[in-house]
Amino acid sequence: MMAAISAARQHNQVLLLEKNEKLGKKLFITGKGRCNLTNACDTDELFENVVSNPKFLYSAFYAFDNRKVMQLIEDAGCRLKIERGERVFPVSDHSSDIIAALQRLLQKERVEVRLNTKVTGLIIDDLSRVCGVYTSDGKKEYADAVILATGGLSYPSTGSTGDGHRMAEAAGHKIKPCVPSLVPFEITEKWCADLQGLSLKNVSLTMYDGNKKVYTGFGEMLFTHFGVSGPLILSASSYYGKCKKKEEIALELDLKPALSEEQLDKRILRDFEENKNKQFKNSLNGLFPVKLIPVMIKLSGIAPEKSVNEITKEERRTFVRCIKQLILHIDTVRGFDEAIITQGGVSVKEINPSTMESKLVKGLYIAGELLDLDALTGGFNLQIAWSTGYLAGHSI
Fold it and tell me: Residue 200 pLDDT more than 90?
């Protein structure tokens, strides 16, 4: 939609072909249906939140940055607000209002929209120039330029089923292997399932690939029947695809990041003093949510019935380490149907970063998640889509 609006503003006659029965199906479910359309941080921070190929986005982000996206949507009649973490949402909390704003812009720019039309291939002449597309009803649509913006493989029910990758590959492009990203982890430890539904706020997490630290973050996470999810986990998953030693990937949780080991030891000692005649299992209510207590007792190796005043200094130290370095081993990530985005895609080495035009096929432009670009959660992936889509349309 952004590419079509931008191309039409350059006085091109634009035809938008959509295989679904309506526009913006994936946009509709983003941000839990609220549409976190960008992030209001400064431009340097935009780049810092891009995981794959941030340098490639230099021209795109500067041509059409987050401020310009916000301006465009507000000018089209959809008011926006900024929430925690600089995330930008429509004031109404309805993603449908963002889609409606884009549809108003498409109408204003006289873009012809054809729904229920699946594109099956590109028409490329002998001079390696694109001259149109084939559609599933056997027709050919001729054009001077074609923008592929079909998304990745995430949430296939919205239509992202890899069509764009197949067409780009048929045109000679290399496709970097695609993996689910911003996705929950399946965990080996069976006790995770006992904590199903428990949400932890303000925890710190480090992800290791063997002995190598690949990600450190702070925030909120959730235990599920299969493992872990939540914002902190989704961000860590962006680095899973880049890990070399898949069988040695582990998460280290710090349940009390505000306290050093020494401070935590003093805190526990104080709790033990207050509960000195109680059993260990009954002395932890001030330290953890109720659901977490049985698991932490088990992991501590201290007998639940042991009297608090009998716990040795060594046992207490081990318990402190267990709280500060709770280890989870990653079995795998969940699939594309649960992944917010796709990591991998069309190699950016074969795309001109100043225009989004293919270096292999004249007149073919590729934008959005089809490209090997991805970012952390917080509106950054949609910003990549807006910026690359705008630049592709603007360059024609």
Answer: yes
What are the Cα distances from residue 107, in Å, to 1, 111, 113?
11, 6, 9
Cβ-count burial 179-190 (b if 16+ within 10 Å, e if not):
bbbbbbbebebe
pLDDT band at 80 (very low <50, low <70, confident <90, very high): very high
Please give the radius of gyration of the chain, using alpha carbons only, rounded to the nearest integer: 25
CA 76 – CA 74 distance, rounded (Å): 5
The predicted-structure confidence for 338-350, as pLDDT tens digits, reads as follows 999 999 999 999 9
Residue 223 in this model has a pLDDT that exceeds 90: yes
Q: What is the pLDDT of residues 244-290, one digit of tens each?
A: 888 889 999 999 999 999 999 999 999 999 998 899 999 999 999 99
208, two tokens: 């290791």
Reported pTM? 0.93
The answer to whether residues 395 and 7 touch, using CB atoms and an 8 Å cutoff, is no
